[in-house]
Specification:
Strand order of the largest sheet: 1-8-7-6-5-4-3-2
Largest sheet: 8 strands, antiparallel
Radius of gyration: 26 Å
Distance between the termini: 67 Å
Shape: globular
Structural class: alpha+beta
Helix content: 25-40%
Length: about 180
């Protein structure tokens, strides 16, 4: 014995006033235009972030997303390093040096050691730009033997950082892997 309900199409029981969830989101006035634009942007590149997580785990670093103020700060430092003229500035017990090595721009701050005339590096910043448009700023704290890689993606709206890398690591390997991840 059949009831007739089983043979009726499912759409027959859906009210004409009911919209599918996706359509309801697009037509709803509850969402601001900005929210709708952000929701329609392409999804996060999961493969890229999986590679970044693997890189962070492999080298014992922390993978952090950069906030807007962090992105602005990294951009400012990046411009300071990449736009500076080669040479050095001596401020008594501190020397600030700038130079270029191929497509890398380097800034190094050195402090005079106690009771000596020699200067020991305390901070090194290296700026470069990947061919995909992303900017990289490597900050090496020579005193703590740690390094930080800040990457601001091409449009400058997003960025991430690998922090807490041991300075004794082959930083060139991390740099090469980041180039590969950024799709250079």
């Amino acid at each position: 014995m059949t009831t007739g309900i089983a043979s009726a199409p499912v759409n027959q029981y859906i009210s004409t006033n009911v919209l599918p969830f996706v359509e309801r989101e697009r037509t709803s006035t509850a969402f601001s235009p900005r929210t709708l634009v952000l929701a329609s942007e392409p999804a996060v590149d999961e493969l890229k972030y999986r590679k970044l997580i693997d890189l962070a785990v492999q080298y014992g670093a922390r993978l952090l997303a950069l906030k807007k103020r962090d992105i602005a700060s990294v951009n400012q430092k990046w411009c300071q390093v990449s736009d500076a003229q080669a040479g050095s500035i001596n401020r008594g017990n501190e020397t600030e040096s700038y130079w270029r090595n191929k497509n890398l721009y380097v800034r190094r701050i050195s402090n005079r050691s106690n009771g000596s005339s020699t200067f020991l590096p305390s901070l090194t910043e290296i700026a470069c730009q990947f061919s995909g448009g992303s900017s990289l700023l490597i900050t090496i704290n020579e005193m703590e033997h740690t390094a930080r890689f800040d990457v601001v993606e091409a449009k400058g709206r997003t960025g991430y950082c690998l922090d807490g890398l041991d300075y004794d690591l082959a930083l060139s390997q991390v740099f090469s892997l980041l180039k590969e991840i950024e799709g250079v």
